[in-house]
Structure formats: structure tokens, C-alpha cells
From TrEMBL:
PANTHER family xrefs: OLFACTORY RECEPTOR
Protein family membership: Belongs to the G-protein coupled receptor 1 family.
Species: Sciurus carolinensis (Eastern gray squirrel)
Protein name as annotated: Olfactory receptor
Keyword Cell membrane applies: yes
Amino acid sequence: MVPGNITRVTEFILIGVSDLPELQIPVFCVFLLIYGQTVMGNLGIITLTRVDSRLQTPMYYFLRHPAIINFSNSTVIAPKMLVNFLVSKKTTSYYECATQLGAFLVFIVAEVFMLAVMAYDRYVAICNPLLYMVVVSRRICLLLVSLTYLYSFSTAVVVSSCVFSVSYCASNVINHFYCDSVPLLALSCSDTYIPETIVFVSAATNMFFSMTIVLVSYLNIVLSILRMRSSEGRKKAFSTCASHMTAVTVFYGTLLFMYLQPRSSHSLDTDKMASVFYTLVIPMLNPMIYSLRNKDVKAALRRFMGNLCCSLKTMQF
């Protein structure tokens, strides 16, 4: 084929979660409800950890950022997906697709490492409580969060640039509900060995280092708890970690299910279902996990609602 005769792709078509016409409205309603709960739950966590004076600690500072990440990641994916349920032409421009992939990568990588940062925070709180405010000072908190976002942004730039460095000149139909690296590379009409290798190495490296930090932190936490003589102390320590351990298990469990499948049973449809879980369902569940198992957050919510009611009554009079 003569290079000058190649027609370059200028837009992509997203198949979505399902291409069955009879399911579009019911599935739209389900995902609209999920996204609405995600927005309310995560904005609630962000608001409470900002305005409540009793939640101005490193633990809740770190809790605020997963809420920001979950809200942002869902907002990158959900609105476009919801619109596509209602329109017949489910297209996205070349540059819109590249932007969505880059933004998605920023927030998913940030979430991977923010869970590791939170595990380190819990390790210091339980294993070195007397040095906690020194080791996890305000400056260290800001540094850890800044490095997480800086690294995730750098990773997103490199990976998305590689994905869009190849040629797209044949099919432009993406078997997904958003622009993701694997289904995009499957459409390329040029050699994808290098970008596929970079995507795989980046994902594997990020997962390995993040999970190593989490596992080492919790191994030391468990050993420290087992050495405690007081059953009340052990119960309090486990309670401190319970919410984060639940969130870590759900998030990493989904990613490991996706990446450790046998190649014989691996498919883009399976990836799509796993992606629904970690881009939409988990961001909805996390605020519930952190608030329902956390007395401080529930107490802060009661104070916030009480102050809000008092303010409304004052305004009426």
C-alpha cells in the first residue's frame, strides 16, 4: 500500500457497555445512579475532610485524595459513556480520545500509589505512634501526594504518547466504553510491539511497587498488632486499618483478576466488565467503605448536617 493513499482515522466509534438497543435505557439509568452516588459520596468525603476541624490529620488528608481521584476518574469516563447510551452515533474525536486516555491514566496510576501512601501512613501510625506526627508531618504529606500526582502525570504522558504514536488507518470501532490503551492498540494498522511493551511494563511496574509497599506495610502492622498485650489495643488497631484494607482488597483484586487471566480466556469483553468495576463501581463504593466503618467520619457528617440545618433555620428567620 502506498503511504500517501492511507486514510488516517480522525474519529473513533465507542461500542459501549452493550450494543443491544433494548438495553440502552435501562443500563443508562443504572449507570446514571452509580455516577450520581459516586459524585455525592466523594464530594461528601472531600467536603468533610476540608471543613471539619477534627478531621485535620494526616490520615484524613490522605483519605481526601482518593476521593478526589475517584471523583475525577469517574467524571473522565461516565459523562461521555452516559451520552453514548442516548445517541445513535457514538463517536469521539481523535484528540478527545487521546485526552480521555491521558486523564484516565493520570487518575488510575494516582489511585494505585495513593493506596500505597495510605498503607505507609497506617504503618507509621500503628508501628511508630510516638513518632507519627514527626514522620508524617504536614510537609511530608504534601511531598508524598505531590510526588504521586507528578509521577502519575508523567506516566500518563509517556504511555498515551506511545499509544497515539502508532497509525490508525483501518477500523475505528473501539470495543469499549471509553478510550483505553489495549482496545486502541488492537485497532492499529502499524507495528504495536513497542507501545504494547511500554503499556505492559508500566502497568506491571506500578502494580508491583504499589503492592509491595502495601504488603510490607501490612505485614509489619499485623506483626505489631500481634505483639500488643491489650485486646482493646488490637481491636482499635484493626479498626484503624479495616476501611483501607477493604478498599485495597477490592481494588487490587479487580486489577489482578483482569491482568492474571489465562490468555485462552482473556478477551476485550472481559476487560470491559472489569473496567466497569474499577472506573465506576469502586469509586462509588469507596466513600461507603470509608464512612460506614469510620466513627470519626460519621460523627463529622452529623455535625455538618446539624450545622447546615441550623444555618437554614437562621436564614428563614
